[in-house]
Task: structure prediction
Amino acid sequence: MYPVTSRFLDTLPQAHRVVTQVTLFRTDGEVVDLPHIGGSVQVDRGQVIRRTCTVSCPDVLLIPTSPADELAVYGARLRLARGIDYQDGSSPEMVPLGVFRLDTVDGDPALGPVTLTGKAIECIVQDDLFTAPYRATGTVSTAITELIQRSIPDADVIFAASNPTIGSRTWEAGADPWAAVQEIAAVAGAQCYTTADGSFLVAELPDLLATNPVWTVAAGEGGVYVKGTRGMTSAGVHNGVLAQGENAADGVAPVSWLATDDDTGSPTYWGGPYGRRPKVISSSTLISQSACRNAAELELRSAKAPNATGDFSSMPNPALEPGDVIRVVHPGGLRELHQVQSFTVPLSQSGDFPIATISAKGDS
Result:
């Protein structure tokens, strides 16, 4: 979760004044604070680009009407934030919601409103397809940094994972560089994505049972719980992952690791009633058994996660992040731990805040 004060979290269930900001960074260097009348930020760790945004503005002058206007908008960026004004003379406590490439601007040129949409800046790396064969070598950190800064030279890349050496890997012209970043991150058992403040972060997916909950969504007086559902599904759920690598160019013999769900209390226990449903991943970047283990265990956490799901609505918490572990207390007292999959933050005083979760487990 984005770091906020305890006062921020304590204020969420209470009546409070919401403050939102939309800042446009034009390509000509001009920075504009945009008036806005609505919008939202959608965050989903299951998507290739985790964050997308929609902003509704009353100013029809935002619609490009000349080549100069178009040049200033194509490639522009949006920075969004939501926070609380405590109305005690202190500055509002703001939480960033993401940095986005502005992709579309449209609306009635006479009456408005104008709708702006954008994607988090991973899309800049994704769209910069290789135009010639590209070879990555070295460590996870150097290879990922070079790939990202190839497209965004001033990108801030933060590592919160191990940093093993990768096997050399060549992608052909036309390949997706963002997919290449994720393939390399898997060698460290990690994922790469942009944070709410626009930095690129390489980190492991938190383990549900080994991570303290960052927030409690509780029903009843003083709680933020609005409504919820609970379910299970086997669609797309694997209980084993075989990661394998072979790199003849580097003279590395084949290596592999099979990670399985070894929790006898899990509904997807390997060899239990669920059976054996493995997934296989392969990459020449995997040149050691430990690298295969990292990649297999990372993929397994994601592959088996959807076996238990929850969908809840609560008072909006803009500080939440995908992968966060939260405690949910249902009406009636049922307590569970859930891992956040997706949510939508409204750019308005009020608005629904649906949270989809994965990997639900009982909480004593």
